[in-house]
Amino acid sequence: MSVTATGPARGLLAASGFVLDVPAIGAAEAAERVLALWADGAELRELPHGAWLLRLPKPVQVYADRAPGEPLAERSGALVTHRADPAAPAPDDEGRLLLPRGGAVERHRVAELPLLRPAEWLDRASIPLRRLAPLDLPPEPDPVDEALPARPQPDLRAAARLAPRSERARRQLADDPGPDRTRALRPLRALDPRTRRMLGSTAVLLPLLALCLLLPENVVPHRLLLALLAGVAIAPVAELLIRGGRPSSPRGAAARRAAGPAPAAAKAGGARRRPPSALLARLLMRTPAARLVQSRHDRYLDELTRAFRQRRWEDALRDAVAVSAGGAAALGWLTLALPGRRTGPLRPSPAPNAPGGVMPGRATVRDHLAALYREAAAALEREGRIEEAAFTLADLLGAAAEAVIVLERHGRLALAAELAEGRNLTPDLVVRLWWLAGDRDRAVRVARERGAFAAAVERLGRTDPQAAGELRAAWVRSCRQSGDHLGAVRAAWPEESLRPTVVGDLRRLVALGGPTQAVALAHLLALGAGEAVRDHARALLDTTGPEHRTHRRRLAATLGELRCADPVADRELATAALRALVRDGGLGEELSSTERGRLRWSLLDRADPLAAADLPAPDPGGAADVADATEAAVPVVTAPTLPGDLPLHDAAALASGAVLVACGHAGTRLLAPDGRTTARWDVPAERIVLNDHGTTALLAARYGATWEVVRLDLATREVARWAAVRADHLAGSYDGRTLLTVDGPRLVVLDTLAARPAVIRYELGDESRPAGPPARTADGCSALVHSNGRTERWRWDLPGWDLRSRHRLTGADEADAVLADGLIVQVPAEQAPAEPARGTARVRLYGERADDGITLPLAPGTAVPADGDRFALAVPQADGSVRAAVCAGTERLFTAVFPQARPEAVRLRRHTGTVTVWDAAGRVLAVADDGSVLARLRTSAI
Predict the structure, then answer these.
(1) Domain match, 121 and 213 both
(2) What's the confidence (pLDDT) of residue 188?
(3) Which of 113, 247, 383, 778 could bond to 692 as cystine, CB 3.0-4.6 Å?
(4) Where is the composition biased (Low complexity) (predicted)?
(5) Distance in angstroms (rounded) separating the CA atoms of residues 522 and 557
(6) What is the DSSP string of 728-756?
């Protein structure tokens, strides 16, 4: 059928599809036009003459002269062009394409045309595939390496080549422990210690009472003796009940020593309880039976003395009883049993042995044994039997330090290091010995955990300067790995050859800003930095605002210590530093008067003589004239009235003045002091764990019991995933390497620099468990602990986790917050409404120091947010606002006011001399320790 062409279509058309002339425009151009129009439900088919038919799911508006191909319209179920035959499609044309071509109309059934798939045009080999997980499913926690570093267990017996025990010892103490005769007592082992002690006391007292009742009246003197003998007979049973296991033996003692040191809870628990057998022994020694016991012990001492005098070292060392170097007071309780012959390995315990049982006797007997052992140690050393001499000093005399000296003197460095670490000698000694022994990884680990790098380098430098330099380089690397760039600079600076290696650390500190930036500028100038660094330092010294006073003082103090490599720059900056000190009133009260005078004279000696002669001495009172008016009225700081655009889960003010905020699944942002967003990361975060140096942060998002943790480098602003950690709570700060978490009944310390989470240390557990989240600073940590049915406050010193104190809370004591320095805050239960003239109450502060308090206006519903060594009292007001009084002990620092807020929504963070207070509505206040307001902002979605 012939048709008459009506000419091209014009104007705006509604196109249901297009015919693309592929032979004319090319396949690449046609594919680009198809992808530009592609929508869900579209179809692409190929016509017999090579053209493409693109059918759209719904019509689109297009100008005819700008159409990608021949526009098509749908009429009566058929696709026709806008310039087709004016005759309507036939009834059987439904589902066909009517296309005029060559003076005729071609009819193609659309469903029968070959189907083209644009998805096959993509080169999937060059496209990275990322499999997305559902948002509502928590991440699987990464496997945790729970293998704690093992304490060394030096085997001095093997090193001393002592032979196995004698035939006589085998007959007295069989190797086979025999059947477990305490199977019936296994249910008693599950009881708590208090119940076991009560049962043990009952097992001792009941037979005594029965004997006293059964014997006749006329044998009263004999009844006491028989009762005492009966008590001695059943003493092992009582001891068994108390210990909850087998009676003690040399093999059991050796096993306990091999198991490692007692947990911190046991070490801080006070004096050990004496078993009932000690009391019975004291009673028996007041009876005529004491002569028999004493004669038996005298024979033992005579035989032991002869063995040492005759230098029968094998028998003497095996039969010798240990004495303490601390004197009779440290020897322990009284026992009637003779010391058993040593049967197991003669190795020192990993930790100093607790006092055990001792034989009755005068102090002269113990002095005799101590002198005997010292003579033996000296003789063994002269004979070249070094390990046996060390065993005598460490195990028999309890003088582990002297044993280490002997081993080191004769080149047994590895054994000396094991003994020093196992007996908890000074960490600098342990580090030095491990370093000299060649186990440098272990030396660095001990130095890092105990903070002993400086002392170890100083001690090693006296004998081996080269080894001290290598240890200092390891110290620098350890600081850098932990994000402590300023610490790396300070560690490297005494060694001139290491100074160029910390240029990268100095540049990172400059990028981070804050007071440490000033210190980094001075060090770069001392290394010969160019004009850009000099101009930066000069611009900082020329500022006059109070917000940069701390920066100028730090720069001036560091310039007083270091000379610039360029003499011209040194004179120019020394003069500018003196002018800045006159404006700021000196170097501040952080330095002593002697130190301030020394640094000022150093600057005067290097400054321009004419300018220095005209400058007056700094007046500490003159700085108040320059200070901002808000410093004089620091007590009250009001947050923005309007809430933020984004919810706020956590916030931390940085040394540069910026504020890092965690907005949950809305991501993480870095805000300028005025609220502008300077950086953002698409990283969900509900918790910010900032390192003590302010260089890195861990961003943690919680999914049930699992935290997804990402590391953020604040200098380069790069993020990298670390791990998924299962924990109940994460501390708000860390030292750059070790992260404190709460996992059920334990405090768990994780290594964040390991490839996967690795446990470094466990605290608490068993009968002690945390009663709430701990408070931490760089120097200490405190926590409320449920221990043996009572509540206590425990305090540790960091980084070594030395348990320093335990404070028991009585019935009248309550804890609304605990601080890292051990202070406990208790708000009175009954509070009057907070009014300007009345309604005040006294908040109790107790725990580490004597009871004290601070009187403040309080009201029902007061919350106590706390962090580190600072706390706040968030008090609701009648107008709907919240007044949060931020305090350091009994000193009230300032009051933060949040309009239209809830007390429980106010939070606090203490970090690097700054207190950050925020509420869940997205309002943040940052105030420095000197009272200056650093930031007053609200979160913004822009």
Answers:
(1) no
(2) 55
(3) 778
(4) 246-269
(5) 9
(6) SEE-SEE-SSEEEEEETTEEEEEETTSSS
Domain assignment of residue 371, yes or no: yes
CA atoms within 13 A on the CB side of 900: 7
Ranges of residues in the chain with a pLDDT under 70 are 1-10, 83-88, 124-127, 132-138, 146-151, 153-297, 324-363, 619-635, 830-839, 849-850, 942
Domain ranges, residue 687: 631-938
The answer on 712 and 563 residing in a single domain is no
Quick check: helix, strand or coil at residue 647? Answer: coil
Contact between 145 and 710 under an 8 Å Cβ cutoff? The reply is no
**Could you read off the pLDDT of 587-636 as tens digits, one per residue?**
877 777 888 888 888 888 888 888 878 788 886 655 544 334 334 444 68
DSSP H or E segment with residue 578:
helix 567-584
DSSP-derived 3-state class of residue 528: coil
Cα 66 to Cα 386: distance, rounded to the nearest angstrom: 99
Looking at the structure, tell me whether residues 64 and 196 fall in a common domain. no
Helix (H, G, I), strand (E, B) or coil at 232: helix
Which residues touch 299 (CB under 8 Å, ≥6 apart)? none
Residue 908 is predicted with a pLDDT of 94
Structure tokens at 81: 């062009």
Element (H, E) at 469: helix 465-481
The residue among 626, 657, 681 that closes a domain is 626
61 residue type, one letter: Q
| pLDDT value, residue 593 | 80
Q: Give the DSSP letter of residue 39.
A: -
Residue 850 one-letter amino acid: A
Residues 6+ positions from 369 with CB-CB distance below 8 Å: 301, 320, 321, 323
Residue 776, domain member (yes or no): yes
User: Do 819 and 693 share a domain, yes or no?
Assistant: yes
Which tokens is 194 given?
Answer: 């208090």
pTM of the model: 0.66
Residue that terminates a domain, selected from 101, 126, 151: 126
Check if the beta carbon of residue 845 is closer than 8 Å to that of residue 853.
yes
Same domain, yes or no: 611 and 728 = no
Does residue 258 form part of some domain? no
SS3 675: coil
Residues 769 and 672 in one domain: yes
How, if at all, do strands 687-691 and 733-734 pair? parallel
The Cβ-side half-sphere exposure at 435, using a 13 Å CA radius, reads 31
Please name the residue ranges forming H helices in 276-426: 276-284, 290-309, 313-319, 363-382, 386-391, 400-409, 413-422
729 lies in a domain?
A: yes
pLDDT of residue 587: 82
Q: What CATH number corresponds to the domain at position 680? A: 2.130.10
* Contact yes or no for 498/527 (Cβ under 8 A): no
Q: Decide if 245 contacts 255 (C-beta within 8 A).
A: no
d(C-alpha 738, C-alpha 157), whole Å: 37
Q: Name the nearest CA neighbour of 938 among 701, 709, 677, 685.
A: 677
Cβ-contact 766, 786 below 8 angstroms: no
Total domain count, the chain: 5
Q: Are residues 660 and 742 in the same domain?
A: yes
**Amino acid identity at 937:** L
Mark whether 400 and 527 lie in a shared domain.
no
